[in-house]
Amino acid sequence: MVIQGNRVLNMAPDAQRLDVVIAPGQWCGWIDGAHGWSGMKTAVFRRWIKDARVEETRLDSGEITVHVVPTGNQITVAVAGRVTVDSSPTLRSALLELLRRNVAPVILIDLSGVSYLDMSGLATLLEALKAAREHSVKLRVTGITGKARTLAEIAQLDSIFRAWGSEVEFC
Questions:
Q1: Region 50-55: what's the mean pLDDT?
Q2: pLDDT at 53
């Protein structure tokens, strides 16, 4: 099997050797099946996933806009609109994909553009917090104002995040 970028170029069912190409034109070596390559494949894939780059992205889904901006060692996810039971799956999928790819040690979720947040939005933030903890990523939630802030305070979102090593900052 030969891996190049994110594609498997060649794979034989009885493969005894794994040729590793992390980037096009950069052959890194091979891993011999006789020396326990299954663990090495995992390490190679982990390195490949960790080195993945995130490009600036904007997702629009009617009620909500999710803007992902990579900056240095953190990713900023700016959310605008109404986070409801209908729109929270868009935010959920964006956050979980970033966490699954493990591309930054800190993810900042900016909710200053959110005019409404319901319980499904809070559940999405808590699910992202759980995934962040599993991937050793720190979540920072900022910009919660108005009725969204009231709901977050009633749910004690700030103390839950602090207990799990992340933070919520109210405006």
A1: 55
A2: 59
